[in-house]
Write a structure and sequence with these properties.
Blueprint lengths: L1 E6 L3 E5 L2 E4 L5 H12 L3 E6 L11 E4 L3 H11 L5 E4 L6 E3 L18 E3 L3 H4 L9 E8 L3 H11 L4 E6 L11 E7 L4 E8 H17 L3
Parallel strand pairs: 1-4, 1-6, 4-5, 6-9, 9-10
Antiparallel strand pairs: 2-3, 7-8, 10-11, 11-12
Bound molecules: cytidine-5'-monophosphate.
Length: 213
């Protein structure tokens, strides 16, 4: 299969030295890219800045902002059998970018933010993508209900949901526990390394593509 993966957090600049971002190490997305290559698939990884090594034998497309990630996805999603959106995209960006460093003279500072494009939400209608579409959901409550709502709203085949209120897994960790939410069913993948979870997720995506799931 040809698989596109988005990973990492986007960075939305405020001025030349500051930016807004999300908490995300990118480990899950990079583990998906590695597992995909190991299992014989061709991977295109579109990634926000991370401290991780670029996995070998993949097409790697580095981006910074959500807008750049959107453009990269738009240019590369055609011809993909599956697209897995694990990036932590910033929901908002500053409405204007200061070309000079903002001085700390005032006691308070108000930043105006505008909404970023929903990249996963653009896949079906805007990009006319008809392959397997997989989104991620990080939730602190009502995990399955919220994931299922996202599954329908963004026309996905699968949502990989993680409960970020659980300590020791998820953010920055090498381990995670996820719930695979399909239109008709759910499947719990209990706590495991992100590497092993990534393998299982790629296999689940392959089953969806081949109709063997
Ligand atoms: O709605 P929410 O942001 O929680 O959805 C999370 C899913 O949507 C993730 O798969 C994430 O990569 C994707 N997403 C996106 N573009 C955004 C926001 C989220 O692709 N602007």
């Amino acid at each position: 299969m040809n698989i596109l993966v988005t990973a990492g957090a986007t960075r939305e600049p405020i001025d030349p030295v500051r930016y807004l971002t999300n908490r995300s190490s990118g480990k899950m997305g990079y583990a998906l890219a590695k597992a995909g290559t190991t299992l014989g698939h061709r991977i295109t990884l579109i990634s926000g800045p991370t401290s991780l090594d670029i996995p070998p034998n993949i097409d790697f497309i580095p981006v910074e902002t959500a807008q750049e990630m959107l453009e990269a996805v738009k240019a590369n999603i055609g011809g993909q059998d599956a697209a897995i959106f694990s990036a932590a995209v910033a929901d908002y960006r500053p409405s204007s970018l200061s070309d000079k460093k903002i001085k700390k003279t005032a006691d308070s500072l108000t930043l105006e933010l505008v909404k970023n494009p929903d990249i996963l939400g653009s896949a079906r209608l805007q990009f006319k993508y008809d392959g397997i579409l997989v989104g991620f959901a990080a939730e602190t409550e009502n995990l399955e209900i919220n994931a299922r709502e996202k599954l329908c709203r963004k026309a996905c085949d699968l949502i990989v949901a993680n409960d970020i209120s659980q300590k020791g897994i998820g953010f920055d960790s090498d381990h995670n526990e996820v719930l695979l939410v399909y239109p008709e069913r759910t499947r719990l993948l209990p706590v495991d390394s992100k590497e092993r979870l990534a393998h299982t997720i790629i296999e689940a995506v392959h089953e969806l593509r081949t109709g063997t799931g």
